[in-house]
Amino acid sequence: MPYLRTWRTSRPPRQTVSPSESHVSRPCISKLVSDRYSDVIVLSEMISYYDISGCYILRPWSYKIWELIQEWFNVQIRKLDVENAYFPLFVSQDRLEKEKDHVEGFAPEVAWVTKSGEDDLAAPIAIRPTSETIMYPAFSDWIRSHRDLPLKLNQWSNVVRWEFKDPTPFLRTREFLWQEGHTAHASFDDANVMVRKALDLYRRVYEELLAIPVVPGYKTEKEKFAGGHSTTTVEAYIPVSGRAIQGATSHHLGQNFGKMFDINYQDEKGETQTAWQTSWGLTTRTIGVMIMVHGDDTGLVLPPRVAPLQCVIVPITSKSCPIEKLAPYCGSILESLQEKDIRVKLDDRLIYNPGWKYAHWEQKGVPIRIEVGPRDLEKRGARLVVRFGGEKVDVGVDGLADAVAAKLDEVQKGMFENAVKFRNDHLVKVTEWKDFVPNLELHNLVLTPWCGGEHQDWEEWVKDKSREESLANAGLEGEADTTATSVAAKTLCIPFDQPDLPEGTKCIASGMPATCWVMWGRSY
Amino acid sequence: MPYLRTWRTSRPPRQTVSPSESHVSRPCISKLVSDRYSDVIVLSEMISYYDISGCYILRPWSYKIWELIQEWFNVQIRKLDVENAYFPLFVSQDRLEKEKDHVEGFAPEVAWVTKSGEDDLAAPIAIRPTSETIMYPAFSDWIRSHRDLPLKLNQWSNVVRWEFKDPTPFLRTREFLWQEGHTAHASFDDANVMVRKALDLYRRVYEELLAIPVVPGYKTEKEKFAGGHSTTTVEAYIPVSGRAIQGATSHHLGQNFGKMFDINYQDEKGETQTAWQTSWGLTTRTIGVMIMVHGDDTGLVLPPRVAPLQCVIVPITSKSCPIEKLAPYCGSILESLQEKDIRVKLDDRLIYNPGWKYAHWEQKGVPIRIEVGPRDLEKRGARLVVRFGGEKVDVGVDGLADAVAAKLDEVQKGMFENAVKFRNDHLVKVTEWKDFVPNLELHNLVLTPWCGGEHQDWEEWVKDKSREESLANAGLEGEADTTATSVAAKTLCIPFDQPDLPEGTKCIASGMPATCWVMWGRSY
């Protein structure tokens, strides 16, 4: 059994620690986690590896989760009058390079098409790393008057970012699937409302569908979107690796792109104005975060709302009780669940025995298994076995569908509460530098007073300093490779929800007066 | 008004003509049709042009049609136990070139990525023109035993074929959206059943959703999929251009790819066998065909089942009847239609007058307009104006939603019957070569006796000969450019539904004994 390796490391209770108590050597854990992650996603049939680095095959078991997220998201954005569209995969060099900060942010990762068949193209053509420069010239054509605003479009597509960091399925891939919303508005404030509404949908995807708590907030200047005015983000925490991860971002683009691409309109007074814009994206990374947060030693644990199958019925057949005897009864249970729109499958395959099926569906994370044996048939009942927590309940067949529906809701809620508890246990406030690294190592998420978004140098200082101290703690002074870099602390966000900041509080890095609290962590 | 140019040319009744009666000069009509097509797709807000040749922007008005097709198709394939998945955009040169006939078919159109950022890649990487070579190595990993068969996957994605023929939005584009189904089976016959089921779904997309009749049949050897065993197709007819168009294809791949990619399994006796495979694809071309078949002088005419809006409510406001007076009544009509799941919009914008709105929604092809003026309010009714055929009916508000639903069904049926009639009027049987070109020119679709699929040379002969005669008829002898090529006749398919073939019937080209009827036309 490959499942016996430790997947979820046990964690101490929440408390602030002083330097001497710190002793966790992160790099070793990371390797274990990443091996285990690979096992889980392959064995659960979510991912197959592919012969081009950074590209992976999304098998039906993961792709269906993406479809369920899409379905929910489409309903929500329709309520915001956002319409779906599709723009080209390719962008010319001229266009891509029009917004200077933007291209600087993406240029090193752009994949270029230079040939078709045997022939060189007249000019190289980029594959979209994101679609601002593809969409906005069209926005410029479509928008003439204030009557044409707001313009709200969304696109589901693949994008390519040819990164050289270690690729990880779902979390960091060279091609990934996402939605990108792009809107144009008549005022800064209208755009801002859109930015926050989109971000709130992302929060809901994580919290309501994936059962993962997130911290919504602003990115610092250093971490914001290339070419934008400001970036908002939802940040999640992954207990098993002790790392934070950016869940999704929603950008206020200000008028930067509007000016570059001439997205102008006549206002009510007939005067020419430049539109205010937003862009916001959610990727298949969501699935990876979900796997990491909820997975256990046996494999996947899927939140019911995004489980491709919420329930699997396994007939307990034997020599004395062949499938023919159980089939009609199992069939009637199947139907009663389908009538309640529960995603359910009857696994009546003869080539596998019940034990094999239990292990199979547990590994794939199906929230509820319904066992139906001869005794259940006799007693007109069935046994529910819950993947999250392992509860077993015998239920009568009459109320079965309702009981399953209620249990699925309960599991969804329980998984979220559990994840909230874990996250909260790993988030501490620290106000002095000497306590920073020890708490980062033990608790992983650290909230500190901060002197403000403009002071990028101090952000870099924390990064360097935290890396140095961490490596020293682990006895790895002087290391400079990727593993070493990954122990540095990064700002995750300036949470919208700010704790009190007493007058006179000092920034943890600069010692200057603090203007806000900022959240730090080691990040993917 | 740009709409006054002739869009649908009037057609003579069905009859076989002799050479002297032929007089249609196709190239000129094509230019007119293509200009008109561009106007319609831009003015109806389906397409915006883009600065890379062969790439277009699918605006919400066309993309929604694609989503409606997707939704229907997903439901159908689920019934066939086909699951959705997602495979990478990229394929290495080695893999792409593994099946020789296949790569020969696609190589000239392949787009190659050779750089990332400023750096050259170690080896060029192709963008998928289709995904056989991307998927099948994974099939080889997943398939071990007869228990793993059948394997049935589908993917919704973009593909790239860098063609140099004249690009046309929807119909011939360098990037397009499609679904590609890929399956593996234990026998030739199982694969064959899958091929035909997929093709029947394509027939239903055209006939039931898009209201376009198609002829299902086999492609000839010359026209079949590169690397496959045989190709089936649904062929549509476009009255306005007099051309046929391949609607979608479903391929029996035999064991060709299975052998190349080692897709082997142990059968029940423990012997190693090679899987039999299929692949089948439907593209955004569907939307272009729909526009061409149903469009009229005013713009789009959308079949209700794929119309993004099936119905638009236009309040007839005036000085004496401001919107406030009509709003509650219009709102209640809106709700009653929404309750019946009719896709409806209330166009209560104040900045446009009713006349502008009529023209706007007609151009966009909305099936039914509901006009609500002060007299309708008084009489508790509304006026339905039907886009297809122009009928106007006054209906009482009580049965309005039912009346609209019934009218939408009627329109869907009427559009299909109309298209069937048009197609049938342009399909004739011809048994002697001298009648071939005249009937091709007048009727466009010609069914002839044929000596069989293997005789590729005779197919080429008909192509050359028909081009020569057509150009001579049009006074364009010796022309060899693209326009001239496009007047040649091509085999469309060998229809499944074969007319009687009396003993002794001769092939129209070779004079050898005929083995079947084949359908010819000028094709996109």
CATH topology of the largest domain in chain A: BirA Bifunctional Protein, domain 2
CATH A-level architecture of the largest domain in chain A: 2-Layer Sandwich
Rg measurement of chain A, Å? 26 Å
Span from first to last CA of chain A?
29 Å
In the CATH scheme, the class of the largest domain in chain A would be Alpha Beta
CATH superfamily membership of the largest domain in chain A, which one? Bira Bifunctional Protein, Domain 2
**Total DSSP E strands of chain A:** 23
EC number (chains A, B): 6.1.1.15
Organism (chains A, B): Thalassiosira oceanica
Biased composition (Polar residues) (chains A, B): 7-22
Catalytic activity (chains A, B): tRNA(Pro) + L-proline + ATP = L-prolyl-tRNA(Pro) + AMP + diphosphate
Key structural traits:
homodimer, 524 residues, alpha+beta, BirA Bifunctional Protein, domain 2, Rossmann fold, Translation Initiation Factor IF3, 11-stranded mixed β-sheet, 5-stranded mixed β-sheet, 15 helices, 23 strands, globular, disordered N terminus, ATP binding (chains A, B), EC 6.1.1.15 (chains A, B), nucleotide-binding (chains A, B), proline-tRNA ligase activity (chains A, B), Anticodon-bd (chains A, B)
